[in-house]
Amino acid sequence: MRIGRRQAIAAIGTAAGAAALGGCSDLAPVEGPCPGLAGRRLRWIVPHAPGGGYDRESRLLAGPLERRLGATVAIENQSGAGGLVGARAIASASPDGLTLGMIGVPGLLMSALLGRPGVPNPASDFTILGRVSRSWQVWAAGPRAPEGPVPGLAAAARPLVFAVSQASSPNIVGIAGAAALLGAHVELVAGFAGTRGACLAAIRGDVDLVCFNYETIRPFIRSGELRPVLQISARRVASDPVLDGVALLGGNAGAAVRRARHRGGDVDRAGALAAALERVVGGGRLVVGPAGLPSGLTSCLDEVIHTALVTDVGGHAGARIDPAPAAEAAEDVRRAAAEAPAFLDVVRPLVESLRR
Amino acid sequence: MIEGTIAAAWDGLQLVFAWPNVAYPIAGTLLAMSVALMPGISGVTLMALALPFTLSWQPLEVVLLFGGLVGGATYMGSVTAILFNVPGTGPSAATLLDGYPLARQGQARTALGCAALSSALGSTFGIVVLIALVPVLAGAILVFGPPELLVLLLWGLATIACVTRGRPLRGLAAAGIGLLLSFAGQDARTGELRFTLGTTYLWDGVGVVPAMLGLFSIAEMLDLGGSGRRTIAGGAGRHALSGSVRDGALAVFRHLGLFTRSALIGTFVGIVPGVGGTVASFMAYAHAVQTARDRSRFGQGDIRGVIAPEAAHDAKDGGALVPVLAFGIPGSDATAVLLAALTLHGLAPGRELMTDGLPLVFALIWSLFLSNWLTSIAGLLLARPLARLTTVRLDILVPIVLAVTVVGAFADQQRLGDVVVAVLFGLGGYYMKKHGWPRMPLVVALLVGAGIERNLHITVRLIELGRIDLGARPALGLLVVLTLLTLALPRLRTAPAADEARV
User: CB distance from A348 to chain B under 8 Å?
Assistant: First the structure.
């Protein structure tokens, strides 16, 4: 595993140049497809700290966007309050196309469900310019969880104990929503240090299960430390063989419908709620600008961003994206925002139980 | 299994030191060191900037470069702590407690030399332990659940008792203030917002880095500004400096026992996921105070107060890679970006990486090792000219350091609120310094308070749900004994009051 000398010099030179010239904006070409943006400096707000998924995807996208727009994309990490600070910064910016960024839909919907003040509505307080990725949540069990697959596991004699990082985590919607559809009794333990901390708790056997985005916990599942038991989706969330035979919540043959049929409940309503849950927890990460972007600029940015995601970013092995154009993403978000309150009755009691 | 690990360590070593591979960690280290001199760009920012430019690289190249960047990113932290009382990084805050008083006595060269060698040897110690324990470390991490973390952090808090015995009530009060401040923000257990004063800035709590910058750096500059001193060292020109780099380096060997124990503390804390280097440094410092026969010089320029935190801080780096690589749990901002770089190149943390990818893991470890030595050698070489900075006139130095501190407070997270916190803590720190209130208890409590609360709640909840049996956790028992010993030992000793440390 040796590296060629030229390759090494070029690579190190690139890194040094990147670091040295990171802030130089005059090197970008001045022509571009979107009127008013070529040669300008775009603020790209990342609502989380450097190193996370939002930051990684933003930095992957920034280079191709610079080339395609002829503008400079300056990334600003405005972390804080679980992404709310950055989201607010985008929503309150002037709608001139010079301030864009990413938001996480499930987090904003969860904050709104909890009645937090000043939470922007992802469906109405932004101009949606495209979807970067979706989150496909799965329930994954540790070694001390009751044996067997869903829905049998959900009917266990004792409550299923889940680990979550925070009481405001959007994953609680995935836990509470799916548990209600399956008729499972669940308990939460909150406060673990992030996704990985919660997964370690399940691996140690301190709790039974976790509910997270599949991509995030895939290494634990592939290594056999966690066992996937439920996909909160109507179709497989990934092509990994390890998901063979793992129950789907949604769809006509999904666990929600089967459970409703078994209990003599409203099968249609169960199916509709399972589909709604998939949209709410899977809202994913969007590229947005402030509400009121001119329509010409919106459609131009939509096209450029989608092309960059599909052509430039999607080809990279480490980028696990699921891009969608603005119209499709906006429709998904609109439906998710409208459907999220349907889960209020199951989310609130679970969060309240943590305060006792 | 151990043969396989040694073979992988050897393969990793060969990978790093083969030409031109070795150029990557060197370049990373030099880049990070250069950037550390520029106010407004932290090592973490540099790493984030470099991320997209490495997309087409091979995983080995990325691992080597980022190993260098992580190692180099901490450079200057201890240097500025010693020279100006400015903790460049969280862990270096413990170094300034005795490093800066040495600089004030004109012995900056001694302190810098000692810090450089102690950190280099500490890094070596951590890596050797890591190599020996790699086969079992992933399993060892699982031993540390919420009850163990709770007691470990309580142990950290207990260290306060060792260093504030001169003024116990004031120490206790300062720790209480620190704990109170650490509770501001979102309650992770319930999601409720507490003491946020209506601002979203405080949802994530009081920033520890700006708080430390204020408490130590701004407070010191305010104090120096009104002290009537001409320079930090007391006089102008070379004659104002005494001691030597050699004296400092030799001090590490004179206190080899302390160095070894501190490095062990650092390695141990590094392995525990989510605790961090700042806790390691303060714990090692407190250990140095606790085990010293004569404690009267601590806080006033005792070289042992430099050896211990520096050894622990760098020894921690090797151990801290284990939770990152085995479970993807970063212990610092720098390792968070490192994790992002690994993930981008398809290197997912987990058992697979710790078995099949072991040579690559060791390439990263050796790259970090090389980087730590490079920064330390640079520290040794630059100690003499750097020490001259303590003879710069204060009317020139104070405004510059104040400006750099404010910019540094902002640059860490790019939040204006951090500057406000730094200034407020600066004023508070100035008051504390002027009126003889210890600041270290406040910092330690602020550092561990949120973790103690979180792990206490999780532990109680798990007991309520019947998920854990505290009696069946041997690691917990061991930590409880260590904590009790920490609290009891100072009382068992018969040191006269005059020998007590005042930090």
Answer: no
Longest Cα–Cα distance of chain A, Å, equals 70
Order of strands, sheet of A41-46, starting from the edge strand that comes earlier in the sequence: A72-77, A41-46, A99-104, A285-290, A126-133
Mean pLDDT value across residues B214-233: 87
SS3 category, B293: coil
A105 in a structural domain: yes
Query: Is A321 a domain residue?
Result: yes
Answer whether 0.90 is exceeded by the pTM.
no
Q: In the predicted model, what is the mean pLDDT of residues B467-483?
A: 89
- What is the residue range of B470's domain? 2-499
Domain of residue A61, CATH code: 3.40.190.150
The span from the CA of B165 to the CA of A189, in Å, is 38
Q: How many domains does chain A have?
A: 2
CA distance A269 to chain B (A): 30
Please state, in angstroms and rounded to a whole number, the distance separating the CA atoms of residues A330 and B383: 59
Answer with the residue of higher pLDDT: A35 or B105. Answer: B105
The answer to whether position A18 is within a domain reads: no
Q: Report residue A317's pLDDT band, with 50, 70 and 90 as the boundaries.
A: low
Number of domains in chain B: 1
Average pLDDT, chain A: 85
User: Would you put residue A36 in left (φ > 0), alpha (ψ -120 to 50) or beta?
Assistant: left
- In angstroms, rounded to a whole number, what is the distance separating the alpha carbons of residues B358 and B473? 30
Specify whether A129 is located in the same domain as A141: no
The DSSP-derived string for B321-365 is HHHHHHH---SSHHHHHHHHHHHHTT---SHHHHHTTHHHHHHHH
The per-residue pLDDT for range A46-83, each reduced to its tens digit, is 998 877 788 888 988 998 999 999 999 999 888 888 88
**CB–CB contact B455 A78 (8 Å):** no
| Cα angle value B241/B247/B248 (rounded, 5°) | 90
Asked whether residue A120 falls in the same domain as residue A154, the answer is no
Q: Is the pLDDT of residue B63 over 90?
A: no
| Tokens read off for B443 | 């910092």
Contact: B35, A187; criterion CB under 8 Å? no
- Is ipTM strictly over 0.85? no
Domain that holds residue A297: 27-134+283-337
pLDDT of residue A272: 93
Domain of residue A182, CATH code: 3.40.190.10
| A187 HSE (CA, 13 A, CB side) | 18
pLDDT (0 to 100) of residue B499: 47
Write the residue in B145, B336, B351 that is nearest to A51 by C-beta.
B336
Residue A25: per-residue pLDDT:
41
